[in-house]
């Protein structure tokens, strides 16, 4: 979603037992939220300045502790409220899924006329109330070095490492740190020294490790790497390569359904292989090995739109939990979105959401066009002054022209890069294409933070008011700003909210995204490039295999199987046409193939 959009979601939803994930990479945003929330609980805000040693980690630790304090105060208050219409305690239980044992107990309490039994059940229900977990996200690629005044690299002072240190030093329990964007050896090696991530004296993990992956191979590689360090992965969060918000890490044509099938069939194999390595690491460290593997949860996210799709993931693939992110951007009770951006999100159509090249990381990035950041960027380009001020420097990694890393969205980089392009005497169309790729980059550090500044009337970052947002493509199917209760009812199939009537199934939506993606990639294909040709042929083959898999997938799209199969047919025809257009020889599979 972006930095500020869930920066205080725990304060909004954890009191109702709902888990949420906070991005902790931007410590200035964290510090701003500290200054905002301390007065709300009648405590003095004491700034943690950049002059303090390890200030970044300290800010993160204190903010997580602050949210934890607020949430527990909220829960204590809810426990004391009466079971009456409109009360917070009723809201807590009404939002639970219908198959929850606690929900059934709540229904029994509400329907009984026996006052003695009612009082007993009320007391039991109050004891069941628990806050949702306060989880954090660390994007492993955002790991810039920091330096002393003398220019020396600070040991264990990089951005991702200090963010992790801030998290593990917090007093959060039953919490998780979610690592996304792939493996970072420096960060993963540091985790070994974080005793808070190891099992405690009771053999449980108070702070769990979650890895976000897009395929089985990634889970196996990262899981083994960490197991060798004595770190157990408690959850693999399987996310669609393209049908997701923010940075998109496209697979080589592997679709979500076949990927989930592989996890389903190899779930026990993965657990056992990691457990063997993990126990060996414990014994090497003179620790007591586990008698059996600790639990590993498997969750899925990426474009889920309704109860039927959500249920299918649970029932067919044995998924333990599902993630709904993008739709919650239209739930003000859950996320922090300024009014202007909220309106633009609710009005978003397919042409407004682009898989852009806007991220300075060089990774494709889902982006909502028409935001204030987009308008400001275009105005600068028109004036012949492309680029952005670079005050935060979280994405300053490029050393193409400078000794010290700079950000590719910055004024400095774009000026130097454009001068280089002008010196190359490129053909006009090639120059314009490369120029567009350069000037597309924009500041995300500030743009993804400012919605909180607007919402809470706090100072803008570096006196800039740019706002950008990175929803998943699924946002075009949701146009109604709704309550938290309404979204919970939609997720659990009690009452659907207003949606795009032509919305394709989540598997079809992802397939279409991959068709568009490979069509775009092929525009740069030059005949005779055998390496790229083999890549494209393999990519197409996997997509065709995925289509064959979906054709025979039992139970999928049960309420509208005819449309599902029709959409598959259309996607297949488009793929065949692309193969023919670029003369790519792809053998069609005759039977379902599981990736």
Overview of this protein structure:
The structure is a single chain. This protein is α/β, with parallel strands linked by helices and 595 residues long. Helices cover 45% and strands 8% of the residues. Among the domains are: 1-57 and 66-156, no CATH class; 337-463, no CATH class. It has helices at residues 9-13, 27-37, 55-79, 88-94, 101-111, 115-128, 159-168, 185-191, 216-228, 256-284, 307-317, 339-346, 372-382, 411-423, 428-440, 444-447, 450-455, 484-491, 506-522, 530-551, 561-581, and strands at 20-23, 134-139, 175-180, 207-213, 233-239, 297-301, 321-323, 353-356, 365-368. α20 packs antiparallel against α21 (561-581). The radius of gyration is 25 Å and the shape is globular.
Keywords for this entry:
two-stranded antiparallel sheet; 7-stranded parallel sheet; globular; alpha/beta; disordered C terminus; 21 helices; about 600 residues
Helix content: 40-55%
Low-confidence segments = 589-595
| SSE series | HEHHHHHEHEHEHEHEHEHEEHHHHHHHHH
- Which structural class best describes the helix and strand composition? alpha/beta
Total number of β-strand segments? 9
Globally, the shape reads globular
Query: Main sheet: which strands, in order across?
Result: 1-2-3-4-5-6-7
Average predicted local confidence, pLDDT: 96
Give the percentage of residues in beta strands.
5-15%
Largest sheet: 7 strands, parallel
């Amino acid at each position: 979603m972006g930095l500020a959009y869930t920066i205080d979601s725990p304060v909004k939803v954890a009191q109702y037992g709902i888990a949420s994930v906070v991005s902790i990479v931007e410590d200035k945003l964290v510090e701003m939220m500290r200054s905002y929330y301390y007065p709300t609980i009648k405590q003095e805000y004491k700034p943690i300045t950049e002059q303090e040693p390890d200030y970044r980690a300290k800010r993160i630790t204190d903010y997580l502790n602050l949210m934890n304090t607020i949430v527990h105060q909220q829960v204590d208050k809810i426990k004391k409220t009466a079971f009456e219409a409109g009360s917070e305690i009723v809201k807590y239980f009404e939002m639970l899924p219908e198959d929850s044992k606690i929900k059934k107990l709540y229904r029994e309490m509400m329907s009984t006329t026996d006052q003695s039994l009612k009082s007993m059940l009320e007391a039991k229900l109050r004891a069941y109330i628990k806050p949702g977990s306060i989880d954090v996200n660390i994007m492993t690629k955002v790991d810039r070095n920091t330096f002393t005044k003398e220019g020396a690299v600070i040991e264990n002072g990089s951005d991702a490492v200090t963010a992790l240190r801030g998290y593990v030093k917090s007093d959060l329990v039953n919490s998780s740190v979610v690592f996304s964007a792939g493996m970072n050896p420096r960060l993963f090696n540091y985790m070994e020294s974080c005793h808070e991530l190891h099992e405690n004296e009771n053999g449980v993990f108070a702070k769990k490790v979650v890895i976000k992956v897009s395929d089985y191979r990634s889970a196996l590689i990262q899981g083994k790497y960490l197991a060798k360090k004595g770190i157990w992965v408690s959850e693999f969060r399987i996310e669609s390569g393209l049908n997701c918000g923010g940075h998109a890490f496209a697979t080589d044509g592997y679709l979500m359904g076949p990927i989930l099938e592989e996890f389903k069939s190899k779930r026990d194999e993965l657990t056992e292989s990691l457990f063997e390595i993990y126990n060996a690491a414990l014994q090497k460290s003179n620790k007591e090995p586990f008698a059996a593997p600790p639990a590993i949860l498997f969750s899925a996210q990426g474009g889920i739109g309704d109860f039927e799709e959500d249920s299918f993931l649970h029932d067919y693939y044995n998924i333990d939990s599902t993630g709904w992110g993008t739709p919650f951007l239209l739930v003000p009770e859950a996320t922090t979105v300024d009014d202007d951006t909220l309106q633009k999100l609710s009005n978003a159509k397919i042409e407004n959401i682009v898989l852009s090249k806007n991220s300075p990381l060089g990774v494709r990035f889902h982006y909502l066009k028409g935001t204030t950041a987009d308008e400001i960027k275009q105005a600068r380009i028109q004036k012949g002054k492309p680029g952005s001020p670079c005050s935060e420097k979280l994405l300053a990694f490029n050393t193409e022209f400078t000794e010290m890393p700079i950000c590719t969205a910055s004024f400095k980089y774009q000026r130097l890069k454009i001068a280089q392009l002008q010196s190359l005497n490129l053909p006009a169309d090639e120059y314009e294409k490369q120029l567009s790729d350069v000037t597309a980059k924009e500041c995300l550090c500030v743009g993804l933070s400012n919605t909180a500044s607007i919402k809470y009337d706090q100072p803008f970052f570096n006196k800039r008011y740019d706002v950008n947002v990175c929803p998943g493509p699924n946002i075009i199917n949701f146009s109604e700003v709704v309550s938290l209760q309404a979204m919970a009812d939609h997720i659990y199939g009690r009452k659907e909210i207003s949606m795009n009537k032509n919305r394709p199934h989540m598997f079809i939506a992802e397939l279409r995204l991959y068709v568009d993606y490979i069509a775009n990639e092929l525009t740069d294909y030059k005949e005779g490039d055998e390496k790229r040709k083999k890549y494209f042929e393999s990519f197409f083959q996997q997509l065709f295999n995925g289509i064959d898999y979906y054709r025979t997938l039992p139970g999928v799209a049960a309420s509208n199987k005819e449309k599902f199969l029709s959409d598959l047919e259309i996607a297949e025809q488009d793929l065949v046409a692309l193969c023919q257009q670029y003369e790519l020889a792809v053998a069609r599979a005759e039977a379902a193939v599981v990736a």
